[in-house]
Specification:
Blueprint (H helix, E strand, L loop, with lengths): L2 E5 L8 H17 L7 E7 L1 H12 L7 E5 L15 E8 H11 L3 H16 L7 H18 L6
Parallel strand pairs: 1-2, 2-4
Antiparallel strand pairs: 3-4
Helix pairs in contact: 1-4, 1-5, 3-4, 4-5
């Protein structure tokens, strides 16, 4: 399961340990979801300005957000795209927002960015939180994965 990490920001330090944690989170999420083949996911770390631009461009919402997902598997599969494994898409995370939210929620930066990663990958897999039922289902899946990967679900 190739997980590609691309750090496009320099405001929040990113070390090998956080990358390893997030790759483990993605791999656990895909295994737990029964995704076959050798799927590819890209994690992109950005700052608030960068994600605010994407948020406006793709959602017409002003200001930064914490995570955006860009699924490549919507609709019909691309011809020949399964040979190397499905390319699920990109999860773009504002690390500045993750730091802020970790403080607001009273947990570690690692836990917050792991949560945002799970949330983003669930969107790549077609999950949404438009209704209370969908939101509850998504939240349960998020916590299940975090409890498998993080010690006691927390760091």
């Amino acid at each position: 399961m190739p997980v590609f990490v691309n750090n496009l920001q320099d405001k929040v330090p990113v070390d090998g340990k956080i990358e390893e944690l997030l790759i483990a989170v993605v791999e656990e999420m895909l295994r737990d979801s029964g995704v076959g083949g050798d799927p590819e996911v890209s994690l992109v770390f950005v700052d608030d300005d960068y994600i605010a631009g994407l948020n406006m461009q793709y959602r017409s919402v002003a200001g930064p957000t914490d995570v955006l997902s860009f699924a490549l598997q919507e609709g019909e599969p691309m011809p020949g795209g399964e040979e190397e494994g499905p390319m699920l898409g990109d999860v773009v995370i504002s690390l500045e927002t993750a730091v802020r939210q970790a403080g607001e929620y009273g947990h570690s930066f690692q836990r917050e960015v792991a949560y945002l990663t799970v949330h983003g990958v669930l969107h790549l897999l077609g999950f949404d939180h438009g209704t209370e039922e969908e939101k509850k289902l998504m939240r349960t899946r998020e916590e299940t994965i975090l409890n498998h990967v993080l010690p006691g679900g927390r760091i």
